[in-house]
């Protein structure tokens, strides 16, 4: 099928970048929360999955796809804000270990809520981008699907938007201030609680977008985000949990590693991908304990 | 302008402020003196709303003990915390911008003003605050507080960790700010000698109680107080 | 007489109180072991084994403050060690237990090394990696000659040896119950005496303040690695017994997967991290609440990862909500809650400070944090 090994290499690179874009997107969502509050949102993936179901329901009711996804992102935002204010914040002062358990509780709760509402029969969510049989172009002989290109671009746009949010807006400035020093943030009149909640909201919206992009290829089920979430957290920790750029680099790197391992390392077989990824991450962390781009500042957690 | 009465504050079960009373008049510089652990920082935090407190704190007709820190900043009370509290990962410029968080108009104007007052900060505007020297950080902390256009500035031990000559310069700046804009200043210090030189009035705090008060000149002249509380 | 009454730690009354509490718990287990029916005892045995693994995790999380989501790997490693030795090499099950313990201890020490450099969330994520990697290794076809791959190893059995009072197959349930109880008690004793020892106090120092501990001359690296090893060994022995009781091992057994890790951590936090009774109470709540919750709604067995769990549908929702509610109501775990209730009746005062002698003046002072009671 492939004329030569170069073509094959290009194909694998393209596939890797496509998968990596999704990981990068989801890792960005994790980073936005971690930067603000030093928390890891273990329910992130499930929130995204839930929102993808919302989007699917909305399209079934006749709304255009882009609007449905946008609305599902709003739902994600509200969910994020709500969860931070109702569950996470009250617990944070009481007991940090409790936040983790509560997040696990949320994970189960949201997952099973989706089962209760939408049942277990697989559903579909259409793709935002052309994803028919022959919607691709050839690059050095390798087939590049337009859908993959679309996802890649969405990820880049999102990175740019986040960069603009953090550096060009007042809210973004406040978010950076809160991430750096909560006490001083209070003293300049920032309502720290709301800034943290907004961080969770933004992350919820990004998670919803990620899930909506993933669902067309992966199929919409309650298991949609389980695997991708593990890869995304791997990406975030590889890149550095407080660095948006790191999340993207980490996500793409993991996508590529995955594609190359499956393609080239016959000895391992596909089943061992995650193990190899984690072994690489471990080595990176031993050299740089806060990831590739993470700041080396002392951890608050 | 500021009238504090019966102010109490505790860390858990330990009550640190035993109900203190003092006032800061319009355009006044008032200093609270006291040894380490007397409760000076606690007093500042109780006013700025960053810890639970009891009693009453009246600021221009508003009851501050019922307000949250951000509302207090909006009313025109800015605090320079002990240890400066600059945003070490943010640039000097961003530190000043975030100081103006409660305001939306004429921010650039003020920015230019404080850069001209503190030219050292202008030179280092793109540098991370964490990389500044102690004196520069203290300037930054004050400039940041000024960005909120306060009517009352709370300054917690600005001299801490600074060489005496830098402290003198700093105090001179504080006096200038006070004279130019009529902004009231509540200063907290261990360094009685320097502080009394710039203050109009002073209080002495000891284990959570006000034990002496008077004009700066009176306290400077009172040898028993100097010996008992100010370690001179 | 006014309540609460004061009782000094270590005084006769305090001892009596502890004995009564201990006696009541012991009575419960003895009664259960003698009178409960087969399935009741089976569930109680599972609970004890999870509690044993949780004791190990508690040592780590509660005492050094390191969060591990990788303990399912040690539980599974123990289980597979016994299963391989029994199933593939025909060993007597009892003899595989020491091998399990030593192997898990060694692997735990090795895994504990990177933990030295990592903190908080980073360590949690790396330990997730450990749990996931372990499951992948179990499924890996290149290791199938040893592990049985996705099929696992079946047909294990461990009949009570003749020196025990148990009567062969008929008493199998009781045999596993008493064995688990003994192992649990031993692990708890080891853990709690470690917490009280000088070594243990240095562990608390590690948790509360690394710099302070370093100043006290505690060898942080050694302490942390050793604790990791011990913690892994306890999970390992629990896993070994669990495999024999289950009569099989396969990669999808829930407590060998990441979910097992998560559930163990949930038990530790629910019980009260760092307390002696915490793991038992946490495991008890977990097993019985989960069981109750799964009865609330029909299970749906939805997700790949959920396979083998009884959580599904409404039950999952109830369980999720309960987890959150419990964390809210009892921020320091159930043991913390019980202690608060007890404080209404008796107040336990700390021991009177010992007069400093030349010998113990050199000892580090015990940190003020109360770890267990
Ligand atoms: N975060 C805290 N928790 C408990 N006690 C505190 C805390 N901060 C200060 N204290 C205690 O409160 C008292 C007053 O402290 P502080 O107001 O900081 O004194 P000062 O600023 O005059 O040196 C001291 O005894 C100090 O130990
Ligand atoms: Mg102070």
TrEMBL record, chain A:
Localisation per UniProt entry: Cell membrane
The yes or no answer to whether the keyword Transmembrane helix is present is: yes
Q: Which GO terms describe its molecular function?
A: transmembrane transporter activity
Q: Does the keyword Membrane apply?
A: yes
Q: List the GO biological process terms.
A: amino acid transport
Membrane topology designation: Multi-pass membrane protein
Per UniProt, the keywords (alphabetical) are: Amino-acid transport, Cell membrane, Membrane, Transmembrane, Transmembrane helix, Transport
Q: Which InterPro entries match?
A: ABC_transp_permease, BCAA_transport_permease
Q: Which residues cross the membrane?
A: 16-34, 99-120, 149-167, 188-214, 220-238, 245-261, 267-287
Instruction: Give the CC-aspect GO terms.
Output: plasma membrane
Family statement: Belongs to the binding-protein-dependent transport system permease family. LivHM subfamily.
Q: What is this protein called?
A: Unannotated protein
The species this protein belongs to is: freshwater metagenome
Automatic annotation (TrEMBL), chain B:
Q: Which UniProt keywords apply?
A: Amino-acid transport, ATP-binding, Nucleotide-binding, Transport
Is Transport tagged as a keyword? yes
Residue span, ABC transporter domain: 2-232
What CDD domains does this protein map onto? Answer: ABC_TM1139_LivF_branched
Molecular function via GO: ATP binding; ATP hydrolysis activity; branched-chain amino acid transmembrane transporter activity
Query: Cross-referenced SUPFAM superfamilies, in alphabetical order?
Result: P-loop containing nucleoside triphosphate hydrolases (SSF52540)
**UniProt xrefs under InterPro entries:** AAA+_ATPase, ABC_transporter-like_ATP-bd, ABC_transporter-like_CS, BCAA_Transport_ATP-bd_LivF, P-loop_NTPase
rRNA-binding as a keyword of this entry, yes or no, is no
Name a Pfam family for this protein: ABC_tran
Give GO BP annotations, semicolon-separated.
L-amino acid transport
Give the family from UniProt: Belongs to the ABC transporter superfamily.
Q: What is this protein called?
A: Unannotated protein
Organism for this UniProt entry: freshwater metagenome
From TrEMBL, chain C:
Q: Name one Pfam family in it.
A: BPD_transp_2
Which InterPro entries does the record match to this protein? ABC_transp_permease (IPR001851), LivM-like (IPR043428)
**Membrane topology for this entry?**
Multi-pass membrane protein
Q: What is this protein's name?
A: Unannotated protein
Say if the entry is tagged with keyword Membrane: yes
> Which terms in the Gene Ontology molecular function aspect does this entry carry?
branched-chain amino acid transmembrane transporter activity
Q: Which locations, inside or outside the cell, does it occupy?
A: Cell membrane
Q: Where are the transmembrane segments?
A: 12-34, 40-61, 97-116, 121-140, 175-195, 226-246, 252-270, 277-293, 313-338
Write down the species: freshwater metagenome
Q: Which UniProt keywords apply?
A: Cell membrane, Membrane, Transmembrane, Transmembrane helix
Give the main localization category.
membrane
What is one term from the GO cellular component aspect held by the record?
Answer: plasma membrane
């Amino acid at each position: 099928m492939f004329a030569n090994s170069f073509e094959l290499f290009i194909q694998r690179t393209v596939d890797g970048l496509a998968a990596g874009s999704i990981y990068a997107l989801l890792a960005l969502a994790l980073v936005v929360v971690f930067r603000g509050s030093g928390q890891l949102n273990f329910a992130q993936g499930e929130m995204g999955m839930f929102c993808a179901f919302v989007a699917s329901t909305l399209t079934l009711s006749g709304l255009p796809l882009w609007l449905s996804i946008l609305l599902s992102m709003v739902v994600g935002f509200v969910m994020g804000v709500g969860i931070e204010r109702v569950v996470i914040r009250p617990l944070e002062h009481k007991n940090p270990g409790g936040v983790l358990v509560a997040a696990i509780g949320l994970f189960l709760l949201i997952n099973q809520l989706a089962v209760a509402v939408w049942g277990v029969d697989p559903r579909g969510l259409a793709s935002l981008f052309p994803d028919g049989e022959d919607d691709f172009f050839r690059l050095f002989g390798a087939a590049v699907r337009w859908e993959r290109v679309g996802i890649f671009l969405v990820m880049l746009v999102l990175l740019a938007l986040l960069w603009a949010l953090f550096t060009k807006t007042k809210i973004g400035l406040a978010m950076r201030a809160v991430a750096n020093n909560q006490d001083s943030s209070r003293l300049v009149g920032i309502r720290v609680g709301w800034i943290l909640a907004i961080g969770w909201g933004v992350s919820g919206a990004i998670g919803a977008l990620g899930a909506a992009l993933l669902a067309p290829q992966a199929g919409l089920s309650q298991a949609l985000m389980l695997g991708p979430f593990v890869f995304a957290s791997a990406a975030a920790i590889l890149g550095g949990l407080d660095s948006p750029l790191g999340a993207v680099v980490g996500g793409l790197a993991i996508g590529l590693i995955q594609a190359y391992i499956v393609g080239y390392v016959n000895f391992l077989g596909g089943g061992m991908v995650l193990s190899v990824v984690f072994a690489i991450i471990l080595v990176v962390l031993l050299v740089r304990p806060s990831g590739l781009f993470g700041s080396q500042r002392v951890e608050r957690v | 302008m500021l009238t504090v009465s019966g102010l109490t504050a505790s860390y858990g079960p330990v009550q640190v402020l035993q109900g203190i009373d003092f006032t800061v008049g319009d355009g006044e510089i008032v200093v609270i003196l006291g040894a380490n652990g007397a409760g000076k920082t606690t007093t500042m935090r109780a006013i700025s709303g960053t810890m639970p407190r009891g009693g009453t704190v009246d600021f221009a007709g508003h009851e501050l003990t019922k307000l949250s820190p951000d509302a207090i900043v909006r009313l025109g009370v800015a605090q320079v915390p002990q240890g400066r509290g600059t945003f070490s990962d943010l640039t000097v410029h961003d530190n000043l911008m975030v100081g103006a968080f409660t305001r939306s108009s004429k921010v650039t104007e003020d920015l230019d003003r404080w850069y001209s007052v503190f030219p050292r900060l202008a030179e280092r505007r793109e540098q991370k605050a964490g990389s500044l020297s102690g004196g520069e950080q203290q300037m930054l902390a004050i400039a940041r507080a000024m960005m909120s256009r306060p009517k009352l500035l709370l300054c917690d031990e600005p001299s801490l960790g600074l060489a005496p000559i830098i402290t003198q310069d700093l105090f001179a700046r504080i006096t200038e700010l006070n004279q130019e804009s009529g902004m009231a200043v509540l200063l907290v210090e261990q360094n009685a000698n320097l502080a009394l030189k710039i203050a109009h009035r002073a209080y002495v705090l000891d284990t959570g109680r006000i034990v002496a008060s008077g004009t700066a000149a009176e306290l400077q002249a009172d040898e028993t107080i100097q010996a008992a509380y100010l370690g001179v | 007489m006014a309540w609460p009454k004061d009782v000094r730690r270590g005084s006769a009354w305090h001892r009596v109180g502890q004995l009564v509490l201990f006696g009541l718990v012991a009575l419960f287990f003895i009664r259960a072991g003698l009178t409960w029916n087969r399935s009741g005892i089976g569930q109680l045995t599972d609970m004890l084994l999870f509690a044993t693994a949780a004791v190990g995790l508690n040592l780590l999380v509660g005492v050094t403050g390191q969060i591990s989501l990788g303990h399912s790997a040690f539980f599974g490693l123990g289980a597979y060690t016994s299963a391989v030795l029994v199933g593939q090499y025909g060993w007597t099950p009892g003899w595989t237990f020491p091998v399990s313990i030593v192997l898990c201890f060694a692997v735990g020490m090795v895994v504990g090394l990177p933990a030295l450099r990592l903190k908080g969330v980073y360590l949690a994520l790396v330990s997730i990696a450990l749990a996931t990697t372990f499951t992948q290794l179990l499924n890996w076809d290149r290791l199938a000659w040893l592990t049985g791959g996705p099929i696992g190893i079946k047909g294990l059995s461990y009949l009570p040896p003749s020196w025990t009072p148990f009567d062969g197959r008929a008493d199998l349930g009781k045999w596993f119950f008493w064995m688990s109880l003994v192992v649990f008690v031993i692990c708890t004793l080891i853990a709690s005496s470690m917490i009280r020892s000088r070594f243990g106090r240095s562990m608390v120092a590690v948790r509360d303040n690394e710099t302070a501990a370093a100043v006290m001359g505690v060898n942080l690296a050694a302490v942390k690695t050793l604790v990791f090893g011990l913690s892994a060994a306890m999970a390992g022995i629990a896993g070994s017994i669990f495999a024999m009781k289950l009569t099989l091992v396969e990669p999808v057994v829930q407590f060998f997967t990441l979910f097992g890790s998560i559930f163990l951590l949930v038990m530790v936090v629910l019980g009260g991290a760092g307390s002696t009774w915490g793991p038992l109470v946490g495991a008890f709540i977990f097993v019985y609440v989960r069981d109750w919750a799964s009865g609330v709604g029909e299970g749906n067995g939805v997700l790949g990862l959920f396979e083998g769990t009884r959580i599904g549908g409404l039950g999952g929702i109830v369980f999720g909500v309960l987890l959150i509610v419990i964390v809210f109501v009892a921020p320091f775990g159930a043991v913390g809650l019980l202690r608060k209730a007890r404080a209404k009746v008796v107040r336990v005062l700390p021991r009177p400070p010992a007069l400093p002698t030349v010998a113990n003046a050199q000892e580090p002072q015990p940190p003020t944090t109360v770890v267990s009671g």
